[in-house]
UniProtKB/TrEMBL annotation:
Residues 87-133 form the HTH cro/C1-type domain. Residues 151-161 have a biased composition (Basic and acidic residues). Pfam families: HTH_31 (PF13560). This is Helix-turn-helix domain-containing protein. GO terms for molecular function: DNA binding. InterPro entries: Cro/C1-type_HTH, Lambda_DNA-bd_dom_sf. SMART domains: HTH_XRE. SUPFAM superfamilies: lambda repressor-like DNA-binding domains (SSF47413). Residues 141-161 are annotated as: Disordered. It comes from the Bacteria.
Length: 161
């Protein structure tokens, strides 16, 4: 969800010299959600669900493979799932992708958002389609959804609250 990085930002400078930034409601909600605002996160989730339904109807949804769908439903990181799919440990992937191991670990744990170039390098090193890792709003195919085990609750959010 690199909503903030992809958004178009406009600014206005007041007579007093203060710069004001104008954001779309979507970008504003994304910022609030990242800051832990649960109402904003709910609005973003509803918006994403609505966009998904529209995209499904138009046939433009990127469907995730079973290994990625299962990992996300189990609360795992898509980057970690890609690393395991590629048969790599953290140090090997970091070396192949040209990313420091601690930075890669932070990306997998959701403590750091990787740049598009970093995520593309990870995908290439793992031998997976970069679009799967760059599409923060991927949607599993209905016939590929696997319920999480009863003893393992689904992760609500990777964001700290």
């Amino acid at each position: 969800m690199n909503e903030v990085r992809r958004m178009s930002v406009q600014s206005i400078v007041t007579e007093g010299g203060e710069e004001l930034v104008i954001l779309s409601r979507r970008a504003y909600d994304a910022l609030l959600a990242r800051a832990g605002d649960e109402d904003a996160e709910d609005r973003m989730t509803a918006r994403l669900a609505e966009e998904h339904v529209t995209a499904r109807a138009a046939g433009t949804v990127t469907l995730a493979p079973d290994w990625l769908t299962a990992a996300v439903l189990a609360g795992e990181s898509p980057l970690g799932a890609a690393r395991r799919q590629g048969g790599l440990d953290l140090a090997d992937l970091a070396a192949r992708a040209g990313i420091a191991a601690d930075a890669l670990a932070a990306m997998e744990q959701g403590r750091r958002t990787g740049t598009d170039a970093e995520i593309e390098a990870v995908a290439q090193a793992c031998g997976v389609d970069a679009a799967l890792l760059l599409d923060r709003d991927f949607a599993p195919a209905a016939d590929q959804v696997t319920a999480p085990p009863a003893d393992k609750p689904r992760r609500e959010s990777a964001r700290p609250r």
